[in-house]
Amino acid sequence: MKEDVDVIVHGAAEVVTCAPELFGREARHAWPARGAVAALCGTDQDDCGVWSGAALAVRDGEIVAVDDEAALLARFDAPERLDARGGTVVPGFVDAHTHPVFATTREGEFDMRARGASYQEITAAGGGIFSSVRALRDASRDELAAKLDTHLDRFLQCGTTTIEAKSGYGLTPQTEWLALELLGEADASHAVDIDRTCLAAHQVPLEFREDRDAYIRLVVDEILPAVAERGLARSADVFCDQGAYTVDEARTVLAGAQAVGLDLRVHADELAPVGAAELAAEMGARTADHLVKVSPGGITAMAEKGVTPVLLPGTCFSLRLAEVAPVEAMRAAGLPIAIASDFNPGTSYIPSMVQIISLACGLLGMTVAQALVAATRNAASTLGLPGERGMLRPGARADLCVLDVPNHLFLGYQTGWNPVDVVMKDGRVVHARRDARQ
Ligand code: NIG
Ligand code: FE
Q: Nearest residue CA, atom 5 of ligand 1?
């Protein structure tokens, strides 16, 4: 008698499990597990756990078995089958840093940068984040919800099943709360799972330019306490960099967030080495993101305090940065590296984690295996959502993609074409560009 499950995924040339433990390869490096998913750190991240010819059994939205196909088919029966047709099966991508609530795009700024303007110059002239703030404040709730829905559809079509998503283009109590409410509604209605972050400290709004402290007090005394009380977000973030918040200002914001029970994430040292990574470590932040200009001391402090670097190569590409984050030094320090799209209208209008994996390989010098782990398991380890995700092993959620490529090395190697054929979320096919059932 065979065991009944809901779905069997078969016909894969490779299954990328991101779980080397399945092969008895236990972690050599230790890292504080803060959520449901333990990261792979240091050189452990070199192994993405590829299983050639494996199949998966799925029941109640969870993976119950991964095994050689013949063995799995001998043990399980299912009313539904998903044929990978010789493709590669990977965990649904986890995008650990996005800004998907905005009203208008900013392609004009991309062109201005091509003509020589810098991101900081555009911001100082009232563009950049400020132009997105003006647009969001003028938009209706329905318009914003519709745009957000379009962004989430694109994530899903690109194989992303879970995102971290920030507010940060309203910069008033009402508009910051609105963005987080919309994300909450989208989480309930859309297949993509959303872990929310309040980024009211994205910039100091122009109307507070002469009294920055007054806005910081508004964030700490009014915006963040209500966010925590109403359960609108799990984390808070601050943009600590040249032309944004100073380290002292950011410390005040982070301390306020911590006091009301929010987890901390930091936009850190993207444009200048201001010491934001050190601050993230001092405050016990879950992540420090960007890190293009991080100092050696910042890396050491992050490793000591268990702060995960979230690297965003899409912004290096879109901003034409000459420098990128020092991946080798981070690996040598034993850090687990995550990568993310930073999807936003200004510095990375890139929804695809497949594209981000290519950029991580081409710009950051990561291997495909490292980048795959960074875009799945390690990204999931920075979130607070329940359930194992970002890996394919028994007990994990059945969030996966069938890619129309014969092996995982095509990620990075092939770019400019979306290889995502089928997306499964919690055991259900939620996107397919061909008949997924077989
Ligand atoms: O992560 N660096 C700060 N914030 C965003 C950019 C936002 C924008 O320019 O609209 C980022 O790159
Ligand atoms: Fe960002």
A: 347
